[in-house]
Amino acid sequence: MALILDVARFKYPPHWVPLPLLWEAMNTTDDATGLLRGFMLISRHTAAPSLLYTVSCRDESWKSMAKYCMEDVPDLLKDESVDNVPALLSRLVKSLPANAGNLIKWVIEVRRQEEGGSGLSKEEEERLILKEMILQQVRDTELFRLVRELQFTKQPCCSCSYSSDDDSFTRTAASVCCQGAALLTGNLSSKDGFCCRETCFKCVQVDGDGPKTVVTGTAVSGVNEQSVDMLLPISTLETSVCNSNSSNEVVKYPSRTDILTVLLLALHPSTWVGIKDERLKAEFQSLISTDILHDDLKREILHLRRQLHYVRSCKEEEYGDPVPQSH
Questions:
Q1: In this predicted model, what pLDDT tens digit does every residue of 285-301 receive, in sequence order?
Q2: Are residues 62 and 132 in the same domain?
Q3: In this protein, which residues make up the domain named Peptidase C83 (predicted)?
């Protein structure tokens, strides 16, 4: 049986009908359209729209980045002397505004420091697993490999890798701890008044999934002190930073290379139509195509693309549909 709840309740009160009868009622042709009637399944989306990355317009950097995306990049693509992907990427990277990293930020979760806490809740564990999965999907792309080689050509190998390109992580952790402290004390306007006194790594055990990394920080504002935990994605295949003596210990928080890769993926596909060399255009478009991405990363990229669309709209520039229609 199925419960029918008609919007015209005053005429059609709620009532139960057998499923076969309901199916027969839907399996008829609508005279106005000539199409069969049917049904729609609606369910709550279980994943957040942005798990690992988001566009931030908290400072003025978005204006210079909007100009970069809308004006500078198209001008760079007109250069006919650029005839290969590494050269094109090099030109794009070198032209990035100094504050480019302030536009796309990785989503960081903070919580009050748990006294003697040694584990994660089920919800926290699931979110970290999803973050790790998306982060790994970014690093599995050919575009990430090329961007990384471009930025770190002097490194002899990649075995000592991902954290080495993030000397600013300590500052990031301190900043996030201050913001988290302001949030947890209920006064966001006071975030600039907090000073992070210390940050340190620790590990928490997750049943069945090994250790996870948490950055613990203590932020102070006047006489107020707030200790917070910042949850970080870390590869389950690599040694934890809390264990000790291995030289292969790598915390896989998103790096500048990750964020730059994601920015290039999130730019609207029409951005690249100005490439003069047709062979180069085809090769580059294949690198940034969302069709080759895993579904989770694809959703993340399309969400960022929508956000970038609204940022550009703030510049009162006409821009096409932020998300290409699937066929």
A1: 999 999 999 998 999 99
A2: no
A3: 1-47
